[in-house]
Amino acid sequence: VGIRYDGSVFPLEVSVSEVRLHHGSFYTGMFRDITDRKQAEITIKESEERFRSLSEATVEGIVVHDRGKIVDANLAAARMFGWEVSDLIGMDGVNLIAPEDREVVLQNIAANYEKAYEVLGLRKDGSIFPMEIEARVFDARGRRLRVAALRDITERKRAEAALRGSEERFRAVMHQAADA
């Protein structure tokens, strides 16, 4: 910590070197005010904490990946697939996709596809479930990453099937009524 002439304190970086000469040695020092760097570190940390809070508050699974390798995930994603968040980090994200849909996902990653699409997800226990993926590319400190929102659409698929069944029964009743 450095102290300015006005008495205020500031973060200081000090670098000291010994210089040896034939008649003895002495030390040189360089002092650098690192207020801006410390403020940038605080800003980044606060931003990361806000992102973590938002991603944990959502019911969607959130996975951030670098060309398929998961670099971050939220708790909802871990629960959806039956893993711990720490298990997901470093995992090849394609392992969360049923084998029959992996090629589609790989093509969409390569093409930076950003619209919602449906695939089959693969849980840790081997069970398969319908899932919707919607992803966006973003830059993070010079790296192009993809953030994917993952939705378990099991209930939506059940509701759609029930609606189709109801419509079919309605048509059958209407057809019988018309024939009578």
Low-confidence stretches: none
Form type: elongated
Q: What pattern of helices and strands is seen along the backbone? A: EEEEHEEHHHEEEH
Span between N and C termini? 94 Å
* Main sheet: strands, sense, barrel: 5 strands, antiparallel
For the CA atoms, what is the radius of gyration? 28 Å
The overall strand count is 9
Query: Which class do the helix and strand fractions yield?
Result: alpha+beta
Please describe what this structure looks like.
The chain is α+β, with helices and mostly antiparallel strands. It is 38% helix and 36% strand. It is built from 5 helices and 9 strands; from the N terminus they run ββββαββαααβββα. It has helices at residues 35-57, 75-81, 85-88, 102-110, 154-179, and strands at 2-3, 9-10, 12-21, 24-33, 61-66, 69-73, 117-122, 128-140, 143-152. The strands form 3 sheets. It has a 5-stranded antiparallel beta sheet with strand order 6-5-9-8-7, sandwiched between helices. The chain has a two-stranded antiparallel sheet with strand order 1-2. The longest helix is centred in the last third of the chain and has 26 residues, at 154-179. 15% of the residues are buried. The model has no long low-confidence stretch (mean pLDDT 90).
